[in-house]
Write a structure and sequence with these properties.
Elements lengths: L3 H13 L6 E3 L5 E2 L6 E4 L3 H8 L3 H9 L3 E4 L2 H9 L9 H7 L3 H14 L22 H12 L3 H8 L20 H16 L6 E5 L5 H10 L2 E6 L2 H13 L6 E5 L10 E7 L10 H11 E14 L12 H7 L8 H10 L3 E7 L1 H17 L1 H7 L2 H19 L3 E9 L18
Parallel strand pairs: 1-3, 5-6, 5-8, 6-7, 8-9
Antiparallel strand pairs: 1-2, 3-4, 9-11, 10-11
Length: 433
């Protein structure tokens, strides 16, 4: 077959009912589609089999991770164009059944089955997490989910994140400004958190989800506080402990492999939770907020830095992103910022400030993609080609999601206000004194 691309383009357009905005190059070398557009490279027929078995995002993701699909040209432009073509709820049998009532769509699907060839379905890529039955967000399942994402090698994370080793959005003055590097922007984010918490020498800070120790080191070194950092990742903890030792801060920083539900040595003057609460889960969020509230002294502050999704009119119809759940953050859940604020207040906190920094995460993700692409050969050796492809797709797609306001990120400052009613915050809170 020397015209697979033209045949594939025609059949897909019949199914979708719209022209394809990208060019296609098929496994036989043939090409079809608008000249000059980003090219979707279909390296193997197995990609079609995956899409036929799992129409929508998960089928596309499996083909991408397996290396059967690729993109040539502007990655962001291609993802932007393709995202609008995927079934909004591709794994919903009712949506597919409705589409298949159309005789032309049924005929096109039969044509795709013939073009794909046997057998169906291919094996899942090794990078996809294998699900176990049982309840989500137990101590065991949370540790397993964290390990899947974070225990892939500290060298790989150094390549992607850069010297700062901060895995949450940086705080940019302006990305194009002179001197606005990823490292300085991450430093500015850690300093912003420190100022919001009003850290002072002699205080105790609990850093929940401490990662590779960046916030713990910053707080101890630059603000003179004693820090307990907790993570469920063995590799993160080992890296953070070495970092603390190298900085000469072992007398002020303790790094533990510990679940936040098992911390019993409060009270603390302040708690930072930076990019960790997305792992907690909706059913456990009030418990999470209550546990942190109990660990704070009266007047203590919590800085909760968390990704949020846009609310849906029908929240019962919300579905976790299939690709993210299977390959990136197993069991992760995003909530609207209003839900987060309400849960913190239900736990007893007084929420004093919410700062939306959505655009900052888009800039950060694009810098991480640059780092990954620049070190691509090394990245594939450090992990696997499939794992590196997961990261490239997830970071680029996430950058677009932030840019298009499909998701956001917010810093919520909350206080365990004492019975006297004094919050300890200045009247003009954005001075962060």
């Amino acid at each position: 077959m020397a015209d697979a691309a033209l045949r594939l383009k025609s059949l897909v357009e019949q199914v979708l009912g719209v022209p394809l905005p990208v060019r296609i190059r098929a496994w036989d070398g043939s090409e079809a589609g608008p000249p000059g557009a980003p090219t979707l490279v279909v390296r193997d027929r197995r990609a079609l089999r995956r899409l036929l078995f799992k129409p929508g995002e998960l089928g596309l993701a499996r083909a991408w991770v397996a290396g059967e699909l690729d993109i040539e040209g502007d990655l962001y432009a291609a993802l932007d164009q393709i995202s609008g073509l995927v079934w909004e709820r591709g794994e919903d049998a009712r949506s597919l059944a409705q589409a298949l009532r159309d005789p032309e769509v049924r005929a096109a699907v039969r044509g795709l089955v013939k073009l794909a060839g046997p057998p169906l379905p291919p094996a899942r890529p090794a990078e996809e997490i294998r699900r176990s039955r049982g309840h989500l967000h137990t101590r065991r399942t949370d540790k397993r989910a964290i390990s899947h994402h974070y225990d892939v090698g500290n060298d790989f994370y150094e390549l992607v994140l850069g010297p700062s080793m901060v895995y949450s959005c940086a705080y940019w003055p302006a990305p194009e400004a002179e001197g606005a590097t990823l490292e300085t922007a991450q430093h500015d984010k850690l300093e912003l958190v420190s100022r919001k918490l009003a850290l002072r020498p002699g205080q105790r800070l609990l850093d929940v989800g401490c990662g590779w120790g960046s916030m713990a080191v910053h707080a101890a070194r630059d603000h003179g506080v004693s820090v307990v950092g907790i993570t469920l990742s063995q590799e993160q903890a080992a890296y953070a402990r070495k970092r603390v030792a190298d900085e000469g801060l072992t007398d002020r920083v303790e790094i533990r492999v510990q679940d936040y539900r098992d911390v019993t040595d409060g009270p603390f003057d302040a708690i930072s939770s930076i990019g960790m609460a997305e792992h907690v889960g909706a059913e456990k969020y009030l418990e999470y907020a209550g546990d942190l509230y109990a660990l704070l002294k009266p007047g203590g502050r919590l800085l909760n830095h968390q990704i949020a999704r846009r609310p849906h009119r029908d929240e019962s119809a919300y579905h976790v992103d299939a690709f993210i759940d299977a390959y990136v953050f197993p069991d992760g859940e995003l909530a609207p910022v209003g839900t987060t604020v309400a849960q913190l207040e239900r736990a007893g906190f007084e929420v004093r400030d919410v700062e939306a920094i959505r655009e900052h995460y888009a800039h950060t993700l694009r810098r991480w993609v640059v780092n990954l692409e620049a070190g691509w050969d090394r990245a594939t050796r450090l992990v696997s080609p499939g794992r590196a492809r997961v990261w490239r797709l997830y970071m680029a797609a996430s950058a677009l999601a932030f840019e298009h306001n499909r998701i956001g990120v917010n810093q919520v400052l909350a206080v365990k206000t004492p019975e006297s009613g004094g919050s300890g915050l200045p009247l003009r809170t954005r001075t962060w004194n």
